[in-house]
C-alpha cells in the first residue's frame, strides 16, 4: 500500500515537472521581467481602434483563429515562405483575418519597452484580444501569460478546425467539444460577434435561402449583398457593431443573426442553447462573466510553455 502510494506521489511530481500544463501560465508572468509590457500593448491597441474601430473585432478574431488551430501558439501569424504554406490562406482566414500589421506594431513597441525580445507573439495576440473587448465596452478579464510561439503552422488544420458559418448546431457544438469546450463556451464565445463585420459570401445563402430569418432584416441585407458578386461588401454582425454588449443575443431572438451559424444557436425550441441565448440577452452581467471565463479557457488551449517553442523576434517568421 505504502509502495503504491509513494509511486503515485513520485509519478505526480515527475509529471508536473515535465508535462507542460496550463497551470504554468500566470497573469503575472511579465511583472518582473517587463512591467511595461501590458500597458504598451494596450496603448497600441487603443491607437489602432481609434484609427479604425473595426480593428478591435479583427484582433479578437485573430486570437480565436490562433487558438483553434493546434493551440494559442501564434501559428496564424507566420507568413508563407517559398517552402512553407501556413494558415493565412486557409479558407476561413484568406482575405478575411486582419490585424497582422497591428500585431507587428505591438511587437516592435513591446521589444523597445522591454529592451529585448521577452514577450511572445501568442501572448501579444491574447492580450490584444482582451484589450480590444474591454476598450469597446466589454469586460476586462485577467489574461493568463507565458505562452511561447510555435515553429510551425498548419494550413490543413486551419481548414479542418475552424468552424464554418454554414454549419448547423450539432457541427458547431462538435467543433467546440473537440477543443475541450462545451455548449456554454460555444454560446458565450459566439457573443464575440457583438463586434465586427462579415463579408457577403459568408451570409449570402442565409439572407436568400434561410427561413428562420426576419424578412425585413433579410431584405435590408440583400441590398448590399446581391445574389452574385459583392465579394468584399460587408455588414455588421450585430445591430451595435462597435460596442461589445449583449445585443448579439437580442438579435438572435429576433431572428436577426447575420450568419447561418449564429442563428443556429437560437431556434425558439427551448433547447439548452436557446436558454443560454435568452439568459445572455437579458443579463449583460452574466454574459460578461461567462464570456470572460470562456476566453480564459480558450486562451489556455494547447499552449506551449516553459522551454517549448520559442519567443519569436518577428511574429511573421520563426527565429
Ligand atoms: C461559433 C463558430 C464561429 C463561426 C462559424 C464564425 C464565423 C465567422 C465568420 C464567417 C466571420 C466573417 C468573416 C468574413 O466574412 O470575412 C466572423 C467574423 C468574426 N468573428 Fe467569428 N465565428 C465563430 C466564432 C467566433 C468566436 C468564438 C469569436 C471570438 C470569441 C469570433 C469573433 C469574430 C469577430 C470579432 C469577427 C469580426 C472580425 C472583423 O470584423 O474583422 N467568432 N466569424
Ligand atoms: C488606419 O485605418 C485605415 C483603414 O481605415 C488603414 O488603411 C490605415 O492603414 C490605418 N492607419 C494606421 C496608422 O494604422
Ligand atoms: C486566397 O485569396 C486569393 C485572392 O485574394 C486567391 O488568389 C488565392 O487563390 C486564395 N488562396 C487559397 C489557398 O484559396
Ligand atoms: C448537420 O450537418 C451535418 C453535416 O452537414 C449533417 O451530417 C447532419 O445530419 C446535420 N444535422 C442536423 C441535425 O441537421
Ligand atoms: C439558394 O439555394 C439554392 C439551392 O441550394 C442554391 O442553388 C442557390 O445558390 C442559393 N442562393 C444563394 C443566393 O445562395
Ligand atoms: C417563438 O415561439 C413563440 C411561441 O412558441 C412565438 O410566439 C414567437 O413568435 C416565436 N418567435 C420567433 C422569432 O419565431
From TrEMBL:
Catalyzed chemical reaction(s): 2 a phenolic donor + H2O2 = 2 a phenolic radical donor + 2 H2O
Q: What does this protein do?
A: Removal of H(2)O(2), oxidation of toxic reductants, biosynthesis and degradation of lignin, suberization, auxin catabolism, response to environmental stresses such as wounding, pathogen attack and oxidative stress. These functions might be dependent on each isozyme/isoform in each plant tissue.
The EC number(s) given in the record are: 1.11.1.7
Annotated residues for binding of Ca(2+) 1: 66, 69, 71, 73, 75, 87
Q: Where does Ca(2+) 2 bind?
A: 238, 241, 245
Its signal peptide is 1-23
Q: Which UniProt keywords apply?
A: Calcium, Disulfide bond, Glycoprotein, Heme, Hydrogen peroxide, Iron, Metal-binding, Oxidoreductase, Peroxidase, Secreted, Signal
Domain Plant heme peroxidase family profile per the UniProt entry, residue ranges: 24-319
Q: A Pfam family matched by this chain, by name?
A: peroxidase
Residues binding heme b, per UniProt: 193
InterPro entries xrefs:
Haem_peroxidase, Haem_peroxidase_sf, Peroxidase_pln, Peroxidases_AS, Peroxidases_heam-ligand_BS, Secretory_peroxidase
Q: Name the catalytic site residues.
A: 65 (proton acceptor)
UniProt cofactor(s): heme b; Ca(2+)
- Cofactor note as given: Binds 1 heme b (iron(II)-protoporphyrin IX) group per subunit.
Q: What's the protein called, per UniProt?
A: Peroxidase
Q: Which EC class, in a word?
A: oxidoreductase
Q: Where does substrate bind?
A: 163
Q: From the UniProt record, which GO molecular function terms apply?
A: heme binding; lactoperoxidase activity; metal ion binding
Q: Which cell locations does it reside in?
A: Secreted
Picking any one GO biological process from the record gives:
response to oxidative stress
Family to which the UniProt record says this protein belongs: Belongs to the peroxidase family. Classical plant (class III) peroxidase subfamily.
The keyword DNA repair belongs to this UniProt entry's keyword annotation: no
Disulphide bridges: 34-114, 67-72, 121-315, 200-225
The GO cellular component terms are: extracellular region
Give residue numbers for the site Transition state stabilizer: 61
